[in-house]
């Protein structure tokens, strides 16, 4: 096993997710409002998207990557609209009871599905993977490279899982230090931030960026 490829993948998995973005914000929001299980459910959705992107890039699935690059503006618009929609939903939920409800299996599933949707339409994540794997182009295009591509993808899976696990558990510990009166404001802060992210993406598209 080429440990350097796994280590490179781990670094990529962390680097792509580390910048503050809508999914990080959603994970922190759910951790503070509902606890680690809810935050981890959101992290799982993002993790699946990360591994999917990494596999496509590492194995040289050029048809898909070319489609993404060719329709990046549309993806940005969809991503921006989703961020605004989820942000507005949280803003309208700001009057909910201060004590959050316990998560159900369905709410955990929705958290994962939401974070997956936000990740696959997040321009920053898409461009991040395309830019990083651009320097590793062709690694999985030959039959002999499949092992290397698999190790790189494995590394991304480990790095991404480590990031979301650490963020979920770390943010959950903040619950113990936040006054109950602040719990009612978490939706407002998170919703406003998500909406701002979405508006910024749409403005960037309108300006041709």
How would you characterize the overall build of this protein?
- The chain has one domain (3-206).
- The protein has helices at residues 3-17, 22-34, 36-58, 62-70, 72-92, 105-120, 123-134, 146-172, 180-206.
- Helix 2 (22-34) runs antiparallel to helix 3 (36-58).
- The protein is globular and about 55 Å long.
- The longest helix is centred in the C-terminal third of the chain and has 27 residues, at 146-172.
- The model has no long low-confidence stretch (mean pLDDT 80).
- The protein has 209 residues and is an all-alpha fold.
- The chain is built from nine helices and no strands.
Describe this structure in a few short sentences.
The protein is mainly alpha-helical and 209 residues long.
How do the strands and helices of this protein lay out in sequence?
Layout: H1 3-17, H2 22-34, H3 36-58, H4 62-70, H5 72-92, H6 105-120, H7 123-134, H8 146-172, H9 180-206
Helix pairs in contact: 1-8, 2-3, 2-8, 2-9, 3-6, 3-7, 3-8, 5-9
């Amino acid at each position: 096993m080429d440990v350097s490829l796994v280590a490179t993948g781990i670094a990529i998995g962390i680097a792509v997710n580390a910048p503050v973005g809508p999914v990080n914000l959603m994970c922190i929001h759910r951790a503070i409002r509902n606890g680690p299980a809810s935050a981890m459910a959101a992290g799982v959705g993002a993790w699946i998207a990360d591994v999917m992107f990494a596999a496509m890039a590492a194995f040289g699935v050029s048809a898909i990557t070319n489609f993404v690059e060719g329709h990046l503006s549309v993806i940005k618009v969809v991503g921006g609209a989703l961020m605004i929609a989820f942000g507005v939903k949280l803003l309208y939920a700001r009057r909910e009871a201060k004590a959050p409800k316990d998560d159900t299996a369905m709410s955990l599933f929705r958290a994962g599905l939401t974070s997956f949707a936000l990740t696959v339409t997040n321009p920053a994540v898409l461009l991040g993977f395309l830019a990083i794997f651009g320097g590793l182009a062709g690694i999985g295009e030959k039959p002999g490279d499949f092992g290397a591509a698999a190790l790189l993808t494995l590394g991304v899976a480990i790095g991404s899982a480590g990031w979301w696990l650490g963020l979920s558990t770390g943010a959950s510990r903040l619950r113990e230090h936040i006054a109950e009166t602040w719990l009612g404001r978490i939706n407002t802060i998170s919703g406003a931030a998500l909406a701002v992210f979405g508006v910024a993406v749409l403005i960037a598209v309108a300006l041709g960026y």
